[in-house]
Structures are given as C-alpha cells and as structure tokens.
C-alpha cells in the first residue's frame, strides 16, 4: 500500500529481523531513472557493512520498511518511491551524487547479521589505538597545565609552583 516494491532475490535462512534490532546490511543504492549509484557499502575482507536500528527512523522509510520482514542471509531489491525516500527535498548521496527532488530509488540489500543490541563500541578501538597515543599524551599535558594555571599558587606543592612561571611564561603574574 505504501508504494514500496519488494523483489526477493534470496530469502535467507538466518534469524528474522524485527523492529528495534540493530541490523547489519550491505547495500547499493541507485537512482531509478538513471541507474547511477548514490551510495554503497564495501564488500570483501576489508568491507564495512552498514548498521542501523530497524524502525528507529535513522534511514529512509523505504529501506526501513523493506528490511523489516527479512532474514539474515536474505537479499532483496527494493524499488522505493520518492515519498518513502527523500521526497520533494532531494539529497546528496555518499558518493556525492545528487538525488533530485521526487527521485525514486532502487536499493539492493542483503542482511548479513543482527548486532548484539548493546552499545556500538567499535569506535573505541580506533580512539584507544597506539596511533592516537601522542594525542592522548598532549591532551593529558594540556589538562595538567590548565589545572596548574587555575590553582591558587599557595595550594600547589612548592615543586610545582616553582615551575608555574616557566610553564606559563610572560602570562604568569605572581600574586601580590
């Protein structure tokens, strides 16, 4: 009734997905009129699938509705009317392809998994990686300098208070 057309390529033999779950998909999105790709996930060993909360309103309504009745391992082609995509406003896809106002979309998608439902902590491995160690050290040193600069001189141990003029240089004014 919404105008979404669904063509199952493979049903999938994994678990069914439900609203509220974080689903993991690979997809390719194309403009219906031209076939031009506006977004896609990468595949292979270095591939990055796309994860979203089903029914959470974080993706276009046509993708949300089209994935809702799938199973893990399932593949579909969704033909999405503009009313379930970007409507009259249009958008710009991940590949910098302009999605014109009123454009219908075709999305080929495959559900590859269901996320564990916990918080997405994949960013922590990057944030805490060895390559970011110099940034963490700089941040710690900066905070230490700020704390020293903000503290009254008589509240600091003498070893630290003697360093304040050196650290702060000409901006340091000894209390009168």
UniProtKB/TrEMBL annotation:
It catalyses: [protein]-peptidylproline (omega=180) = [protein]-peptidylproline (omega=0). Keywords: Isomerase, Rotamase. PROSITE patterns: FKBP_PPIASE. InterPro entries: PPIase_dom_sf, PPIase_FKBP_dom. It is an enzyme of class 5 (isomerase). The keyword Transcription does not apply. GO terms for molecular function: peptidyl-prolyl cis-trans isomerase activity. Pfam families: FKBP_C. It comes from the Eukaryota. Its EC number is 5.2.1.8. Residues 20-115 form the PPIase FKBP-type domain. This is peptidylprolyl isomerase. It comes from Calcidiscus leptoporus. The lineage of its organism: Eukaryota, Haptista, Haptophyta, Prymnesiophyceae, Coccolithales.
């Amino acid at each position: 009734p919404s105008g979404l057309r669904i063509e199952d390529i493979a049903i999938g033999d994994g678990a069914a997905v439900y609203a509220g779950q974080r689903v993991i998909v690979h997809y390719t999105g194309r403009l219906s009129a031209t076939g031009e790709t506006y977004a896609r996930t990468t595949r292979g060993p270095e591939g990055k699938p796309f994860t979203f909360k089903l029914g959470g309103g974080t993706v276009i309504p046509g993708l949300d509705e089209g994935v809702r009745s799938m199973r893990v391992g399932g593949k579909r082609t969704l033909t999405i009317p503009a009313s379930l995509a970007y409507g009259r406003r249009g958008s710009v896809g991940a590949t910098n392809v302009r999605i014109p106002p009123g454009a219908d979309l075709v999305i080929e998608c495959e559900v590859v998994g269901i996320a564990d439902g916990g918080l997405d902590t994949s960013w922590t491995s990057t944030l805490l990686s060895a390559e970011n160690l110099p940034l963490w050290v700089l941040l710690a040193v900066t905070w230490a300098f700020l704390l020293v600069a903000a503290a009254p001189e008589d509240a600091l141990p003498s070893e630290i208070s003697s360093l304040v003029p050196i650290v702060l240089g000409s901006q340091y004014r000894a209390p009168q």
